Amino acid sequence: MRKDWDTYFLDMAYMASTRSQCSRRHVGAVLVQGKKLLGAAYNGAPMGVPDCSEAGCMLVEEFELLNQGGDEQVVKKQRCIRTIHAEQNLLLFTDPKDREGSVVYVTDQPCWTCANMLANSGISEIVYHRPYPKDSDKVKSLMQQKGITFRCLEAYEPPQGTMAEVQH
Predict the structure, then answer these.
(1) What is the pLDDT of residues 118-139, one digit of tens each?
(2) pTM, whole model, 2 decimals?
(3) 44-55, pLDDT tens digit by residue?
(4) Among 62, 87, 124, 140, which is most exposed with the fewest C-beta within 10 angstroms?
(5) Alpha-carbon distance 4 to 112, whole Å?
(6) Does the residue 90 lie in any domain?
(7) Residue of 61, 72, 87, 157 marked catalytic
């Protein structure tokens, strides 16, 4: 049976994610214009630098002030700063003119930083599979404000052998 285009390109993003050496999350992203693949990337340390599997994660704690129903709440987050995210690598290694009106397929919903970068990149759509609850609401709001189509393919099944265990 022939795969639909969303499945086809999300499969490619999952294949790209298999290159990641991150012990916390394997993420892949591809840039598509029309039905043409323009680039692929995954999360990892900068080229030539030991990655998380060799040097361990470089974790930092951050605090975010959230206003929920008039009540302010401080939320503690932990993230690895050794790794360049798949979306960031995709933007680094693709041509800006190729991004105009293109679609990014990514295994995971972009974090806030990646969402900001994608929002300024000229793309018209983001398609992802796995949610990222830490930043979900504000990322969805940003995409709506920018007019960027933002879709989750919940029923999607990744190719066998491409799903790495996600650690939070």
Answers:
(1) 999 999 999 999 999 888 999 9
(2) 0.89
(3) 999 999 988 888
(4) 62
(5) 29
(6) yes
(7) 87
